[in-house]
Amino acid sequence: MAASVSPLCGLEEDLTCSICLGVFEFPVTVPCGHSFCLSCLQQFWCGDRQFLLGFTCPQCRTAFTTKPELKKNNVLCTVVEEFLRSRNPPECSPEKQLQQPGDVACDSCPPRGNRATRTCLTCMASFCPNHLEPHQNSAAFQSHQLREPLRDLQERKCEEHSKILEFFCEEHSKCICSLCLLSHKLCRTASMEDTKKDKEVKGRKQYLIERLWKYN
After folding, report:
1. Domain RING-type, which positions (predicted)?
2. Predicted local distance difference test score (pLDDT) of residue 43
3. What is the extent of the structural domain holding 174?
4. From CA 69, how far away is CA 136, in angstroms rounded?
5. How far apart are CA 154 and CA 59, in angstroms?
6. How far apart are CA 80 and CA 97, in angstroms?
7. Nearest CA-CA partner of 66 in 29, 26, 31
8. Residue 137 maps to which CATH number?
9. Do residues 189 and 164 make contact, with C-beta atoms less than 8 angstroms apart?
10. What CATH code is carried by the domain that includes residue 193?
11. Same structural domain for residues 75 and 135?
12. Contact of 144 with 159, CB cutoff 8 Å
């Protein structure tokens, strides 16, 4: 007898955030009707992008005169939960346990427990789908930053403030967190991602210069 197929199996594309391209986590809906993960939308609206473009829909670019009030889309959240239950194997199955060397363990499970699917940069901990539910369902966790699991989370933590190291100070040649920025206001700082890209560009330029000198 063929196994029954959940009617939700074909909904993954409709339940995907167009910013992170993953299934919605704490979905919120903006006035134009499009939905996104709360943390993705908050990150999209912060920094230089918001200063230059204002508050716009990341998908259709509709502009809002003021920042929309973001509330959890309870109906969509319920559909996402049902979809994940239909797609994910039971908790005891080996697929949810640690298997690969790069897998990150859930900090709320027993040792060698379930594999984490997200890391919270606010809690500084990683969670499996079951222990991630409070972040998805409780308003108290709305502002928490979620991202792909980080294996070396403790090594990325600022020793002074216990926050993630997100920036690089060129004057002191060290990685710093968002709170460290207050004491580095006069320094040249950049995000870790921008610093990495800049070093890659400089490395390629140096390689080309060496090649030119070699053949001249």
Report:
1. 17-61
2. 83
3. 154-197
4. 18
5. 35
6. 22
7. 31
8. 3.30.160
9. no
10. 3.30.160.60
11. no
12. no
The percent of residues in the chain predicted with pLDDT above 70, rounded, is: 73
Do residues 128 and 115 make contact, with C-beta atoms less than 8 angstroms apart?
yes
User: Which tops the pLDDT comparison, 151 or 4?
Assistant: 151
Average confidence (pLDDT) over 141-145: 80
Note whether 18 and 64 are same-domain residues.
Answer: yes
22 and 75 assigned to the same domain? yes
Dist. CA 177–CA 161, nearest whole Å? 8
Domain membership flag for residue 187: yes
- Evaluate whether residue 189 is within a structural domain: yes
Mapping DSSP to helix (H, G, I), strand (E, B) and coil, where does residue 45 land? coil
Please say whether the dihedral angle defined by the alpha carbons of residues 122, 127, 133 and 134, taken in this order, is positive or negative: negative
In a domain, 95, yes or no: no
d(CA 165, CA 116): 21
**Where among 45, 64, 87 does a domain terminate?**
87
Q: Which two tokens mark 169?
A: 């100070």
Number of domains in the chain: 3
Instruction: Write out the E strands in the chain.
Output: 27-29, 35-37, 55-56, 63-64, 118-120, 125-127, 146-147, 167-169, 174-176, 189-191
Q: CA angle at residue 116 from 45 to 153, to 5 degrees?
A: 70
Q: Are residues 132 and 77 in the same domain?
A: no
- For the stretch 151-203, pLDDT in tens is 777 777 788 887 778 888 888 888 888 888 888 888 888 876 777 777 665 66
